[in-house]
Amino acid sequence: MTPLSDCTLVSAESSIASVLQLLPGSRFLFVVDKRGLSGFIVRSALDRHAIRSYLYLLIAGVEMLLAEIVKSAIPDNQIITSLRSDQKSKFKQAYAANQETSPAEYLYISDLIGLFAQTPYASDPRLWDKPLTDLLISIKHFRNDVMHPVRSLAALENVETLANLPRWAAEVTEKLRGIVAFLQRLSA
Fold first, then answer.
1. How many angstroms separate the most distant Cα atoms in the chain?
2. What is the distance of C-alpha 133 from the center of its chain?
3. Dihedral of CA 115/117/123/128: which sign?
């Protein structure tokens, strides 16, 4: 038995991001609602659909913003040469059927990051910096673990680092949105 005063309590209204910050330092978290204790959260909750979906959407949002910037800043022929063979054949098939207009949408996150690094925006200190690149690489590191449900997030050695993913994604997304807004102002 552990006294409640020694336990971490979270509101049933808490965001996933705030719960993720608390989970690494606790064996479990007690959930409190209007009626009192209503449940608990354990490390294995990281493998639940709600958590995975949340993290998936954060990473997918970063990928979509990177693709938008790459589409605007890198010529299609250069993007096509960056496509891996399986991506290239899928793109060419869709392009031939008039289903797709940009090869950037076929790139993996590592390829998007590489092409983004070649844009002038990635080297403009008013828009981007090295710590943001480091965060982007950290996000990429978790992509496959998050995207593939057979990989246990709860079994990861670095759950503490995973808990930072929402904060990293928010910071990177804010800056990428700023670049996209800058590009939209340029094209207007």
1. 66
2. 13
3. positive
185: phi then psi, degrees, rounded to nearest 5: -65, -40
Q: How far apart are CA 42 and CA 46, in angstroms?
A: 8
Distance CA 130, CA 128 (A): 7
**Residue 2 half-sphere exposure, CB side, CA atoms within 13 Å?**
11
Q: How far apart are CA 107 and CA 4, in angstroms?
A: 49
Length of the chain: 188
Query: Is there a contact between 110 and 141 (Cβ–Cβ < 8 Å)?
Result: no
Which amino acid makes up residue 142? F
CB atoms within 10 A of CB 38: 11
Token representation of residue 77: 């022929």
On average, the pLDDT of the chain sits at 90
Looking at the DSSP bridge assignments, the partners of residue 32 are 11, 37
Q: Quick one: angle between helices 49-73 and 130-147, nearest 10?
A: 130
128-176 pLDDT, tens digit per residue, is 999 999 999 999 998 988 888 788 888 876 778 888 999 999 999 999 9
- DSSP E strand stretches across the chain: 8-11, 28-33, 36-42
